[in-house]
Structure formats: structure tokens, C-alpha cells
Amino acid sequence: MLPLLSHQQTLEPVYLAYLDALEQSEYSGDIDKRYSARLVQATDNSVYQFLPQAVLYPKNQQDIQIALTLAASDTFRSVTFSARGGGTGTNGQSLTHGLILDVSRYMNRVLEVNAEQGWVRVEAGVVKDALNDVLRPHGFFFSPDLSTSNRATIGGMINTDASGAGSLVYGKTSDHVLALRSVLIDGSVLDTHPLDAGLLCNPDNVSDNPLGQKLISAVAAVCREKRTQIENQFPKLNRFLTGYDLKHVWNDSLTQFDLSRILTGSEGTLAVITEAKLNLTPLPTERAMVNIKYDSFQSALRHAPSLVAARATVVETVDSKVLNLAREDIVWHSVSDLIQEVPGKVIDGLNMVEFAGDTVEVEQKLASLEAVLTEQISKGECGVLGYQVTQDKPSIEKIYGMRKKAVGLLGATKGRRKPIAFAEDTAVPPEKLADYIMEFRAVLDGHNLQYGMFGHVDAGVLHVRPALDMCDVEDEKLLRVISDQVAALTLKYGGLMWGEHGKGVRGEYGPAVFGDELYGVLQDIKGLFDPDNRLNPGKLVAPKQTGSLYYDVDSVKRGKFDRQIPIEVRDAFPDVMNCNGNGLCFNYSSYSPMCPSFKVTGDRVQSPKGRAGLMREWLRLLEAEGVDVNALAKAKPLGLLQRVQNTLNAQRDYDYSHEVMESLKGCLACKACSGQCPVKVDVPKFRAQFFNIYYQRYLRPAKDYLVAGIEDSLPLMAAAPRLTNFAAQNPLSQWVIKKAIGYVDAPALSVPTLKQRLDGHASRGYDLAALQAIPEEARSHFVLVVQDPFNSFYDSGLVLRFIQLIEKLGLKPVLLPYKPNGKPTHIKGFLDKFAKTAQSSADFLNQVHKLGMPMVGIDPALVLCYRDEYREVLGANRGHFEVKLANEWLLNVIKDLPAKAPQDKQYTWFSHCSESTAKPNTANEWTKIFAHFGAKLSAVNLGCCGMAGTYGHEAENLERSKALFEMSWQQTLAKIEQPQVLVSGYSCRTQVKRFAGYKPKHPLEALLELANI
């Protein structure tokens, strides 16, 4: 049976006392001591796992001041802090065993935009892409780019001095910092900005903060004194080495000093940055991208310097491994036309070259490069196989979207060894890159490792991720060996092991880069800012008096915990184990379908990454208790009385399973994660597995039985629809259902019913023998309509109109008998019942499949369930039947139909979450279909509507459901005339009716209207 699970990771007494004192203070932010919240913040996008004591979510700068001032007392001097933003670090940059200060939840405002002077003032928690959304209408953008720009925060970018594509032109984050506001370890506030050298003679001129005066004077003096050593020792690179920028704190003429340059790249080890004033870059008037295809990755690398010489704004490269992974991902549909195959050739390398600027300049550079490439192809030079040009801005962004997803895509590599980050951001002088990479490859090949490569060849930065299995102790040891080899190799080529993503736990390699004298200066600076080593301790450097760094590349890794889970259990929960922490599920945009529960709560526990992490710990704790999870999944529930007792004791007895349940029940089961996530983490799948086990010990809520039984109950209720509606829809019944079951706004059954609407119609009266008797050549004229519970019983008029459309197209519809699909039972974790339902339906549909007649379903979620959950649960027993989506079927049908003349009809299509992620080309398919019918269709990219099957009908989810609808759907619907709105998902149409006050049409209904014109 499922036992009570205790993690035994209690808070240290000093932290408990500190947090109690903080709660009694004027601190207004959130304090989260839940084990689940601590676990989620214990990992980032690296291989490391450090469990923090708690997580603080300050609402403003004053909260941070209060927190640090309180900790400055002697009682709490051992309390440590680490500021955190998007959590996208690749080397444990913000991980800590102390307290996390997460500024992303609340401190995410754009405070001021000055378009005339070209600067912006922001809080540290603003996401980079969100900032650019604000700046775009003003004609500017914040130009340092990075692959995680849709979840990385400005504070994180400043702390790692982040940069990415186009850095040769646009520079690094530090090149754009005009001023910073930070909270020092004593709780005081320090404003930093460029200062004329003459002002430094009088401390009162530089700051009104006494500690700030001391810091500015001391750092200015030592950096001036050591100027020669700094110039000689620091690598000559476009990229900066985080921790600390002694070189640029003074300008070249030593007339201006800026302490902000020390804070930029300090990885939170010196102060907590709360605000930044940043300079902006005007948006280019013209952009063009050339995708150059090569016969090898080496050819792409060696060709890059000539592309930089062509004055390109950006030169990005990817190898064949990344390209092949992209071809298997949802992202490929958006770029396949832009990176077409070369007939008879194999593309093993790709350079993406962008020119940006004014129109004349871009056109000249583009024409020059095209002429050179054409000649090289004709002569067979440089390994160039071909190229494609695009000057369409949306297409250029799609290419970058594919490149940005490369990091996560590598995690989708098959096998136990996965490409991981630990030596992935090395930088060398660009002219040495090709030779350096050949030696790097030799190192990895010498260990018989697979790897993927991509990056910014124009800046000499290439991201190399060797594939290792961190559950294998020997592979963990190999990580150390390779790290040492790569550190030495980068020094040999005059480069850095950490050229872009920050140093994190790799501080041990600092002395070899800086030399003993300058490393000592870095230690002194850390000691000036943070003498007790309490700000992100163990990273970069430690004050001399506190001893050596206690984090290094051998520090505790996630693999230490994962390997405690038996292999057979890991294999049973692949989605749980495969999450690599890339954090794409933290996408800030409310117009992205990924992930609605995180967007509406701002709680990382309510995200795919969070849920996968909690499940891994759950599996580990079960193994520690000697429980065979696979056997447990097949066990029967405890007796009713025992489950009642366990449920009543749930408030008294701590059980970690409750924390997992709290996270998983917040999931909408929209399956956006399964398509949007680079490694295809399918939360609804392992959510159902968990529910199935959890409810062996505890009572299920009544609403679960209501949802799971709905498909079986509907035919009975539809026998007397008016009576059923009266019984369920009157105010008293609705109040009772809400209070007793927790269900709200249940839709009314269709009146008349589908059976009544089709009474006497030729489509009814399914007869398998009669269909089998139809000659083979005539069967293509028949269409088998697969029913689903929602449209057949709650929107029967739609099914009728679909049948009428089939007839209008000259075909013969046959309404198949209603068979439960099973998706509601799967969502609620009734896996045994789902398996039986799925097998019964699959047997029937396989029998019908033999007729060779197309089977078509209306609701995307139910049709996709046949393809996904059926295959997962039934395996080979699923058979080979195929149920097409209406758009898939129509796309083939219109090939044989004459196109209608263009009409003055315009529609806007709203996608279903599951549909847009599992079938990303659906919008293009509907657009082609409507064009064939003489109408114009446009699609809108939106987040979740908030209904997601039955999620929005559960009373405890009502507020979140409404909030999600308001995020993107409400305002978009308000801009479009009601007759033009088309919504393919039943649950989405229900949500629009509930909150917008009208029922939108399905695309099929609009097509019928067009066909009748």
C-alpha cells in the first residue's frame, strides 16, 4: 500500500527563527517554507541540486531591505541568501542551501521608458521578452539576446553579464547598463552609475551610503593600482568573465569610474540588484537572414570568419545533431520551408546569418554575400551546399525560435545519456574557434561521447553539450575529468571556460585565469561587500578570511538523488525523469499555451518542471520506504473505512504525497507541455499515474466520480433531456451540486437531442454488414462520423451541421454508434477503467477501420486521445485504426472539389490548446480549407481559455479559470465581431459562452454556410 511519506528535510533552527521574525516584521512579500517550493527551487538548468531552507518572494525593494537588515543582527548572521530570477542558470548560479530571494513573482515592472533619451528603468524581475514587448511600440528593443529570453529576467542577465546572438554588434548586458540600484548585505541601498574621477576625492560626492562610499573608494583605488596587471591578465574576448570586471570599472582614459561594472557579472555575490537603468537600441528598419547549408559542421565553422568579415549582425551555427532533433520537434513545422533540403546532399551544418540596419545597407550586404555564396557553390568551395534568403520578419523570428530551442532539444536525445550543461559556454578568439573545436571534439571522442554543438561563431562561443548519464557514478566522475580538460584547453587558446552563461560552481578554475595576485583582489572585493560570505556563498570567490570555496564541479548533483530510483521505475515514469530543467514552461507570455497553471498562479510548483521535480522526489521516497512503485500501481485500493480514516487524518499526519497532489491537481491536463516542451514532458500522463496510486490510500472527491462517469451516464440522461436539464439546471440544484460535489456551470443537454434531430435521416441506423456489402470502389464516397460525448449530447446541432456539410460535399455520412472515449477517466486517474474503455472502443474502431472508409471526429481533444493515450495504455493492442480531425479530412476532400469564387467573408479561428500543440500546422490547414470555400481565415495565437475539459467546471478552479480567460481570450474576442469568431474545441466554446455571453461557431458550421451560398 501507499505509505505515509516524510522527507525529513526540516529547516535549521536559525532559519526557522529568522523566518518567524521576518513574518512579524513589516515584510510584505511571500514566505514559502513548503518542501515542494524548496524542491522546485533546488534545481535550475544545470545538473546540480541544492535544497534551500525556504523561498522569499519580496514584493518590493523595501522587503529586501527588511530581510537583509534583519539578517544583519548577530542572532541571524549565519543566514545566507541567493537572489534568483528565471532560474535558467546552467551551472548552479543561483542555487543555495540558504534562502532564495526570488524577484520574478512580484518585482517585474517596467518603471519608466524614456524614448527621447533612449533608456528604460526596470525592476530586476522583468523577463527580457516582456520588456521588449513594452519597448516595441516606442521603436526600441533591449538588444542583448539569449535563448531563454522568454523566461530569463533582467536581473539574471545583469548578474551573469548575459549576451548571445549578435553580441559583436549589440554587445553584452554590461554594455547597456547605465545605472543600478542594489541592496547591500547590511540592508542599505546603493545607487551606482558612472562617476568622474575628480569626484572620488570626496566620498560625500559619490554616495550618501557610508558603506557605499567605502566600496567605491576601495574598488576604484585597487583597480587603478592594478591596471597594468589587469590589462595583461584578462583574456582579450568579446565575452566577459563573470566575477569581477576589474577591467572595465574604469574607462580607458581613467577619467570615469563605474561600480556598476563590478556588480554586473557578480552573480549575486556582492549585492541584491533591485533596479536597473538600461540604454536601448533602435529597432532596425530592415532585416534579412541567409540560411547557409554545409556538408559538414567543420565547414560551417571554418566559413564563419568570412561571414563576420561580411559585416553580418549575427552569425549563428548548429550541427547536424541539433538539426535532426529540431526536425522531430513541433518547432520544425514553422521553419521547414526556410531550411529546405538540398537534393542529393546531406546537410551536416548550418550557419544562420542576419543583416540588420537601414534598407540600403542591408540590401548591399545581402547582395554581396549572395554573389560570393553563389560562386562558392558553383566551384564546390568551402563545403557550401546551398542557401536560402528570407526578409520576412516573422520568418526570421521563427528561425531564431528554432535556434533558441536547441538547448532544450538536446535533452530529447534517445538513451540514458543526455547532452548536459557543464562546459557548454566556452569562448575563444573567433579566429581560433575552428581549431579549438577540433581539439574539443578530440577530447570528447577520446571518451567515446556523443554531443551536440551550436552557438555564436561570430563571437567565438560555441555551446557544446556532451551526453552523460548522471545516474551513472562513472559518468559523474567523467564530468570532472572533462571539465578539467576543457578548462585547460580554453586557456591554451586564450579563452574562457565560462564565456556566456556565468561561472556558477566553476569558481575553482578562477585562479588559473586571473593569476594569484588578481584572484586575491577578487577575494578582497568580495570581503568588502560581503565579509561574512552570506550572499550566494560558495560561488565565484570567497572572502580570504572565510576559507576556500565550498562549491565546485563535484558538488551534489540531481543524479545523486535520481539514481536512488530503480531503473525499472525510471522507465515507467520517463516524463518525470527526462525533464532537464530548461524551464520553457516558465514562458512569460499569456499568449502562449505553455503552461496555464503556472501563468495564473506565478507558482513554480504549478509548472511542468516543478511537477516533474516533485514526482522524482516522490518516487525516491517510495523507494527509500522499500515500496515497489510498479507493483503499487497495480494494487487495489484500501477498504472504504481505512480510506475514510486516512482522509480524516490527512490534516493531522504529514504526508509528502499531499504536496505532490496539491501540485498535480492544479494541472489543467491541456497537454501543452507534451508538445511545447523540448523534451516532451507529458504532465497529464504521470498525473494520471499518481492519481491512480494516491487514491488507493485516500478518498476521491465526489466530482471525480461525476467526471469519470459522465460518458456512461449521458445516453441515459439524453433519454429525457428536458427532465435532466430541469433537475440539474434549476438554482437549488446548482447550489446543491456546487456545495456537495464542487461542480459549477454544468452545461445543459441539447434539446432536441442528436437522435431526435436525425430521426429518419439516412446517416442513422449503422449496420456493419450493410457497409461491408458496399463495393470497394464506392466506399470512398462514405464518411464515418465518430461521436464524442460533448458534441453529441451538449452540442448536437453541430453534429447535425457536420453531417449536412458532408452531404453538401456530395458524400454520404454514416453516424457511428456512440462509444465512450475514456479521456475523462484518464484525466482523473481511473486508469483501470480507462484501459477497459479504450480497449472496447479500439476493438470497435478497428473493426470499422477495415471498411476503408474515413473516420472523422469533431472534438480535437477526444480525437487526439485516440492517438496518444490509447497508444500509451494499449500499446500493440490499440490496433491501426485512424480517426481524422475534421480539418485533416477536409484537406484531402477539397483536392477533388472545385474551389469557390472569393467571397467577402472573413473569420478568425481560435485554437484548442491540445490541438495547437499536438498539431501545430492546424491553423494553416483551416486557412487552406476556408480559402477553397472562398473565404479568408486568420488565426490568433492565444494561451489557454481556462476551461480545459472539466477543469473550469470545478468550483475550486473557478477563479483561476476566469483569470486565464481574461489573460488573452477576453481582450482578443472583444476586438472581433461575434459572427467571425470560430472555435474548434467544445470546452473553449463553452468558456466563451460562459464569460463572453455568446456561443461561437465551430469552423464546420461556417463552412456549411459558405457551401450554401
Mean pLDDT: 93
Q: Kindly state the number of beta strands.
A: 28
The proportion of residues forming helix, as a percent range, comes to 40-55%
**Beta-strand fraction estimate:** 5-15%
Q: Structural class given helices, strands, pairing? A: alpha/beta
Q: What is the rounded distance between the termini?
A: 64 Å
List unreliable stretches of 5+ residues: none
For this structure, the quaternary state is single chain
Which descriptor suits the 3D outline? Answer: globular
Q: Main β-sheet: number of strands, strand sense, barrel status?
A: 8 strands, antiparallel
* Radius of gyration of CA atoms, rounded to a whole number: 30 Å
How many helix segments?
Answer: 45
